[in-house]
Design a protein that fits this description.
CATH topology: Rossmann fold
Catalytic activity: (R)-4'-phosphopantothenate + L-cysteine + CTP = N-[(R)-4-phosphopantothenoyl]-L-cysteine + CMP + diphosphate + H(+); N-[(R)-4-phosphopantothenoyl]-L-cysteine + H(+) = (R)-4'-phosphopantetheine + CO2
Number of helices: 5
Largest sheet: 8 strands, mixed
Structural class: alpha/beta
CATH class: Alpha Beta
Radius of gyration: 18 Å
EC number: 4.1.1.36, 6.3.2.5
Shape: globular
Strand content: 25-35%
Strand order of the largest sheet: 5-4-1-6-9-10-11-12
Protein name: Coenzyme A biosynthesis bifunctional protein CoaBC
Pathway: Cofactor biosynthesis; coenzyme A biosynthesis; CoA from (R)-pantothenate: step 2/5; Cofactor biosynthesis; coenzyme A biosynthesis; CoA from (R)-pantothenate: step 3/5
Keywords: Decarboxylase, Flavoprotein, FMN, Ligase, Lyase, Magnesium, Metal-binding, Multifunctional enzyme
Number of strands: 12
CATH architecture: 3-Layer(aba) Sandwich
Bound molecules: cytidine-5'-monophosphate
CATH superfamily: CoaB-like
Distance between the termini: 28 Å
Length: 224
Amino acid sequence: FQPADLSNIKIAITAGPTRESIDPVRYLTNHSSGKMGYAIAEAAAKRGAHVTLISGPVNLATPANVERVDTDSAEQMHQAAMDAATNHDIFISCAAVADFRPAEIATQKMKKKSGEDEMVLRLVKNPDIVASVAGLTEQRPFTVGFAAETQDVEQYARGKLSRKNLDLICANDVSQQGLGFNSDSNALHLYWPEGDKALPLASKHELGQQLISEIIDQFKAKQH
Ligand code: C5P
């Protein structure tokens, strides 16, 4: 049994990959399944929070009592996130946003040219969604980011925490087998300016519940 103790809290969560079109039939993406973000959304909704789930393209069912906003590219996700951010108390950026997108989207399917064994795709930087939200000067939500690292986890995670102006960052060591992308389980280490806490290996379902509890604790601590 879980109490519906978060009924006065609004939480926006981004989840899944983004899809960056190259031409009408091709795109760039990554291996994010969206499972972690969906588990967090489910855990928050079960405790009665009002949850907006800003989702990239994933193969997951929408959790009960969650309002889902479907997006495709990082630019679309950025727009949806900025629309939601100022009327939510907490923003959790779980999405694996593509850092770059093709500079141009070809309007017709790109053709192979005979005799050419190479092609160059020019990429431009995508907006940093979580940094845009954390940079709001009015109605800024408590902002939580993720960091997938393969080495020096604390150093890189704390670097992102301060550079992106986040309130909390959830780091996972993606070099460990069976964790992170596409897996059903994960282990996280949370860092905030004055402290840290390890959440050991557990199912994403279980971790989603623990994570919501920790985020709510830090959110409330910051209110005071
Ligand atoms: O810098 P890095 O991509 O490792 O940061 C990861 C965090 O930043 C995650 O919370 C991710 O959702 C967020 N992010 C974002 N927009 C981007 C890139 C990352 O919101 N363009």
